């Protein structure tokens, strides 16, 4: 019998990225139970905590059901083999938050910066390495810079001490050829191991995850049932099944992980069907964390938020400066062809009380 090749490691992020879908309300009990179940099915790396990461609840980024300490304790108390970790955005998280997490035995950390701000990760990477953590540099909105420039940032992160670099399709709008360009560009300048985190706005999260594996990614991210920010992530169950079809041994019990997803996560999922705001976010490569600003100016000028998203991303795919959003919204409002039509489900996204067509 032929021995299967070892697959890339799956970083299971249901308890972190999935928390966006439930307003960061996973409890410590949820964390303990799901961590335990994931470890039993064979996962080696499990991400927990607030979707935005360490210290997010204290910095105006949505208040999670538990403190960072409670999430860390919940994972530490039940995991004996799998490593647990958290997300960390410099400026939201502080260096002392990494020190605190180390006290609970946290085994890995992902330092997330916008791709054009990779320098901000230096002190955070160094602090985490000091504690012996496995450190991933996570380039959010990777698509916002050219592959050659991305590669230079990758080289920089490697010099800081990062163990792996994530190519991140934050808006779920990348093409397979984009992914290939980033992989090849990095490989031309340095040998830092690569990983991939994708979102599913245009239905490509699974395909891109598998393509990343084919390109040599040592880690890929998934969530049970695909739960996650915006239209979600690559579903853990499907990626595990495809890796098996490819002859790659993930060490994960396929039926077991399906059972975990159906029991604990499927009941939390929203109604099925395609969401036009999610699709436009993928098409325009818009990060859904700025949807509140889009909402505000769409209501103010009574315009279709999808047009505002597209207009913004023609100018800026990394941030959503209020003055720029206001200017674009004002311009759209003066164009008669762009008036909001009754076909748009305004009530679904923004509430009937603000419906211009009500």
Structure summarized in a few sentences:
With 358 residues, the chain is an alpha/beta fold. Helices cover 42% and strands 13% of the residues. The protein is built from 14 helices and ten strands.
Please tell me about this protein's structure.
The protein has 2 domains: 7-268, TIM Barrel (Alpha-Beta Barrel), CATH 3.20.20; 276-354, Helicase, Ruva Protein, domain 3, CATH 1.10.8. It contains 14 helices and 10 strands. The protein has 358 residues and is an alpha/beta fold. The longest helix has 14 residues, at 28-41. 50% of the residues are buried. Strands 2-3-4-5-6-7-8-9 form an 8-stranded parallel β-barrel, surrounded by 6 helices. The protein has a two-stranded parallel sheet with strand order 1-10.
């Amino acid at each position: 019998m032929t021995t299967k090749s070892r697959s890339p490691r799956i970083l299971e992020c249901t308890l972190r990225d999935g928390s966006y879908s439930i307003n960061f309300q996973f409890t410590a009990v949820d964390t303990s139970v799901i961590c335990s179940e994931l470890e039993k099915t064979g996962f080696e790396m499990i991400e927990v905590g607030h979707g935005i990461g360490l210290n997010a609840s204290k910095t105006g980024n949505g208040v999670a059901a538990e403190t960072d300490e409670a999430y860390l304790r919940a994972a530490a108390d039940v995991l004996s083999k799998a490593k647990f970790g958290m997300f960390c955005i410099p400026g939201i998280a502080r260096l002392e938050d990494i020190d605190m997490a180390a006290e609970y035995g946290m085994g890995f950390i992902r330092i997330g910066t916008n791709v054009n701000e990779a320098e901000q990760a230096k002190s955070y990477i160094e602090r985490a390495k000091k504690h012996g953590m496995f450190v991933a540099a996570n380039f959010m909105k990777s698509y916002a810079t050219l592959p050659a420039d991305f590669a230079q940032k990758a080289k920089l992160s490697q010099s800081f001490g990062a163990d792996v670099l994530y190519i991140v399709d934050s808006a779920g709008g990348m093409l397979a050829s984009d992914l290939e360009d980033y992989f090849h560009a990095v490989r031309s300048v340095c040998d830092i191991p690569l990983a991939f985190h994708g979102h599913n706005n245009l239905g490509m999260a699974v395909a891109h995850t598998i393509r990343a594996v084919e390109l040599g990614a040592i880690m890929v991210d998934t969530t049970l049932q695909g739960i996650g920010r915006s239209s979600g992530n690559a579903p853990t169950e499907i990626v595990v099944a495809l890796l098996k079809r490819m002859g790659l041994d993930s060490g994960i019990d396929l039926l077991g992980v399906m059972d975990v997803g159906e029991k604990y996560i499927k009941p939390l999922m929203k109604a099925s069907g395609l969401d036009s705001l999610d699709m436009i976010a993928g098409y325009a490569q818009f990060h859904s964390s700025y949807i509140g600003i889009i909402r505000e100016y769409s209501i103010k000028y009574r315009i279709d938020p999808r047009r505002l998203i597209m207009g913004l991303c023609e100018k800026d795919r990394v941030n959503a400066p209020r003055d720029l959003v206001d200017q674009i919204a004002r311009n759209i409002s003066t164009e008669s062809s762009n008036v909001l039509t009754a076909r748009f489900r305004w009530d679904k996204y923004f509430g009937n009380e603000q419906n211009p067509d009500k």
